[in-house]
Records
---
Amino acid sequence: MLCGTTSALTPEVADKMTAKIIDGVAVSGSIRAELKERVAALLAKGMRPGLAVIVVGENPASAVYVRNKMRACEQVGISSFRYAFPADAEPEQILNLIADLNIKDDVHGILVQLPLPSQFSIPQIVRTISAEKDVDGFHLYNMGGLVVGDTVFPPCTPYGVVKLLEHESIPLEGKNVVVVGASNIVGKPMALMLMQRDATVCICHAKTRDLAQFTILADILVVAAGQPNLIVPQMVKTGAVVIDVGINRLPSGKLVGDVDFEGVRKKASYITPVPGGVGPMTVTMLLANTVASAERKSNGIRSLDHATS
Ligand code: GUN
């Protein structure tokens, strides 16, 4: 169970407070600069990291994400290879391609953009990708590694959140963390990664009754529910760190997260904006995993022999 903690802030101080905005674009920029140097070191040894991206169908959001990922690869010197299939492609076609990519020397990461059309079984696709090239961190081996704190490739979005918290020197040990959203891609791995860092973690989800009774206890609140304005100021403890993983497009075309940013920023100590918070970090950590994969190959490390977190 979560234990409540009281805020050290007086109401007068809290009234004047506005949160520090965590700049995901700037943090991404500095990580990408480091990655460029690591790519240069690999190039000097005759290896260029390579990422294969498989996209099926015409989902417009997926097309934008894939384009952003490939542009980011180019920016740091990673080769990217795009494999596009029509929406009615047979699962066998993709499974066969993955089998080929698993043994290709110039491919260090394989990513199948989700969602996939209904004829696909996502677990089957994900388990076909070699754990050594699973830079999304979705393979059972990598997911299982999170449970014991010994994963090879952490899933990119929660990995990005951890990097943002580290960048701001926000301590995790003993903190009450509430994760809203229990997806396999974000919520569950996020909770495991924070537990590994000795936080006290509570996961809430769509069936949670009275969400606010949990969120109000959070020193650190991570929201990945896909619902605009789900988190309003009354649900947030004064001085909390609020990380908004949501990306929602309103009918007006505006991009917003899951948090009422203008309201909550007056109550929180740190907050991530949407866009410009967690989003750029997801792509950056994909690059980081791809570079790490190439380095592992260059050093002769096999995932199933040896893992690092
Ligand atoms: N679709 C939405 N987010 C992701 C992601 O992080 N990886 C993949 N492969 N597909 C996604």
---
Amino acid sequence: MSIIKVHDKSFDTYLSEEVIQQRIKEMAAEISRDYAGKRPLFIAILNGSFMFAADLFKHLSINAEICFIKLASYKGMKSSGNVVTSIGLEDDLFGKDVVIVEDIVDTGKTLHNFLPKLLHQQPKSLKIASLLHKPEATEYPLQLDYIGFDIPNKFVVGYGLDYDGLGRNLKEIYQLV
Ligand code: IMP
């Protein structure tokens, strides 16, 4: 265990690089099996999911496409969940098998607000892959099809996740002390 400081807060190691990478390989294998013979489009939600999306994507053994979009919803350590806008969704989703890639589902509000926009385009199927999920924080229940880790309702940083802009570069995931 090692304590790090991000801004004014202390964080303790929670998930090691090895544990994260092993789980992502398992998720990629499961998704590859489920989408065998198909060509899904992965929609990764920036900023937090960039590392997870890259690692998940490189372990897929099927043909797949990926695009990155940005939603605005989070400030500091409290989720506002009000999806203001989505930038970068240029693909037409009609008839496509879509997999949303998220770093973490906390209250569920972000995806709850965003999914109707995607469903409006009539994709053939729509599934959600999230590296982290805080079941105790759920306010907007969602069907999460692929979950890396269910975690306690404590703030985490690292592996793409930030605390006020910092901590994204950490290879491990750290939990607020
Ligand atoms: P939700 O709308 O409450 O589900 O929050 C989703 C978004 O909030 C995620 O995509 C993250 O950007 C952010 N978020 C939620 N929990 C945490 C956390 O513990 N650390 C860093 N970001 C978080």
---
Amino acid sequence: MAAFRLCVLILLAALTAATAQVRTNPDKPSDTLDKTFHQQRREQLRKQLPPRSVAVFFASPVRNRANDVDYYYHPDPDFYYLTGYKEPNAVLVLFSEPQSIDGKQTKELLFVQPNDPQYELWNGERLGVEGAASITGIATQPNTTFAAFKLDTASLQHILFKELPHDVRDATADQADLYSLLGQFRSKVKMPIGFDAQRNMLYNVVREQGASQPEEIKGYLSQMMQYYPALRQDRYLNDYLQSADARSRVKAVAATPKSKLDGHTLGQAMAGLREVKTEQELQLLRKAISISAQGQIEVMKAMHPKMSEMELQGIHEFVHKKYGAQHVGYPSIVGAGKNACVLHYIESKKPTVDSDLVLMDVGAEYKGYTADVTRTIPANGKFTKEQKEIYELVYKAQEAAFAACKVGNNFQAPHRAAEEVIANGLLKLGIIKDRSEVQRYFPHGTSHYLGLDVHDPGSYGAFKHNTVITVEPGIYIPGGSPCDKKWWNIGVRIEDDILITDKGWENLSKLAPRTVADLEKTMAQPSGLDNFILPEID
Ligand code: GLY
Ligand code: MN
Ligand code: MN
């Protein structure tokens, strides 16, 4: 283990020169999604579009940090999935059937920001119209032509889009920035002011099923109104809910507004597609996950009680970058002692991890795909009796959850299995007196999908072949909890990334040690960072 403390930024810069080269080439072509992947994804989506429909996607907004400095741009995952294009201020238009546009049969169009030498001098190269057409294979035009682009709304039956962002600033004079593009789209499709995609979806539900399944639909609407109080003011939904007999029901159904605009269905279709990974996506996910696991190993070897949370975070992220992972998929969580009991603790502000348990939930993002791996280890290399008891209970819960990762099982099956083990274990240790108290110490779900997003979209129904999920049970006992204080400030989460296929499940993060014995053994190993000692700076 190393004995040093230093600023993480200095560490990142200096170690690039100091450590051995990683023997990978992050740019090898097979490592990147190719044009065919995105083309095939568009074809799959098109198969799901209703006849005579158009699907319109917008690039995600540029977010401002302060003054003239923006946050690092994160492309919209759906836009990237369908095109491979990663720049802002773009629109993708997909038709269910080819349309005649400017005398040509066209089934898809891309509008992108054109080249701008002055902008590119400051901010780096843009692909431009030709570059975007070349990498996507889509008929591409400058985004400045979107305003004049004629969408034949009269011949279309469905105009599909994902819910439009309401918080995009009109920050530039550019007539084709996202703010302008959204405005042009709203006016093209004659979107009423205050159009509400969720209400519109509920009107469709009422119109399609309200007459034939009144009990179910009324129950569903009441539930939605509980979650979203603004819906309680809706005249049409209330009229339907209050309709007491078949005649008034039919009248209420007929009165619900009908619109071609649909800001709901497209999101669901994209979630269904992204839930099932292709082999190319799995290759990138495997890489992101292995990089993250190796980061965990390097930190296990380097950890020392005098290190800070920030320094440990820096080592994880440095290892990711060494392997060519451009970003983290979410803000890194590195928390010692009581900080380990805060589920999404991202401050990394404890100056020394001392002899605490350190929870490290860190995921490398590689070519857009993110890992999500958590290990919890004792800063001094040896679990205490209490730390070990809690750790082994979480481990047992995770094993039970793995066994429930089967094609056809309900998405909740791993959680139910993990919760059962943790409830029984906490009862046995005397930490809870009744099974119903389990959520006090295990307050989150066990799984989510993983992919371009850390919390990737999906159906949350039965598991399908080639789905990747996390399995991440945890026990968190903050100081002051109603149990013996010997348990206080122990927080443990173990999180692995699991591929579910017809053949069973595979732990993609198994490279990172997980048993108490393997963790203690790894922590006892020397680290390449042991002799990396920087001079004091006043
Ligand atoms: N890293 C966030 C999560 O585990 O869901
Ligand atoms: Mn997770
Ligand atoms: Mn996580």
---
Amino acid sequence: MTRSLSCCVTWVETTDRMHIIRSIEEMQREANSHRAAGAVIGFVPTMGFLHEGHLDLLRLARRRSDVTVCSIFVNPTQFGEGEDLARYPRDFDRDCRLLEAVGCDIVFAPGVEEMYPEGDTTWVQVEGLTNVLEGAFRPTHFRGVTTVVAKLFHAVRPHLAAFGQKDAQQVAVIRRMTRDLRFGVEIAVAPIRREKDGLAMSSRNTYLDKDERKEALALYRSLQTAQRLFSGGERRPEFIQRVVEEEILRSGAMKLDYTAVVHPDSMQPYEGAIDGPALVAVAARIGSTRLIDNTVLGEE
Ligand code: PAF
């Protein structure tokens, strides 16, 4: 359980060894004092309802920094109309217990009004990279992600921020934003954490019923097939893409949004034979749940 820390400024709560901060000003003050003391700040932005994949990010950030901050904020601007903002799973106390157990120092959990003050009209938008794959199906999604991550970087002032490879396009977009705006934040990426049967961990997996959960494994199977083809010498992107697509559609229950074989930094399709790392990205819907997954071919 969290409790208020009476000696401190309003909006600061604490568990036994972890601070919970709700205001941007307080977060900046805390970050500035750590920076002034020469500490390296590692940051993990999340929307909460944490799983082992998030905790891997925390562990990565902890290994590389002196002070670890995790933000929990379900960001309304990255959900499109008709998407799952209202039902997005939330359990703040459980998240705090998990974070404390992995040694997180600060939880930054602002409210919506704190992040988006009334009447605000400012967006941060990366162009090009954001209108393909996920961006083609969720046209306002990345604008919401880059805007909130820019605001979070501004509040937390991290030296390093950790993101999951599962959202491969998000990683590419955030790297570009960080470089273009010269944030001076190193972007670290942790591998996809999977359940024992291969399903990529996601807070949205909780939406799946038993049958859907089983059918969803078609995504992982399709990516394994891509890896097998590549290991066997196959280098034709369109052939790999077609086989991946067929494997997913074979499940019968999944509705495909896209399959793609693209350059991992530009998200542009491979033209001609694959001659470097290639991202195989898939997105499909099962029932009312949308899932994404990916694998990188030819990764050293
Ligand atoms: O990956 C996520 O959980 C979100 O997109 C992020 C980076 C926390 C921004 O809201």
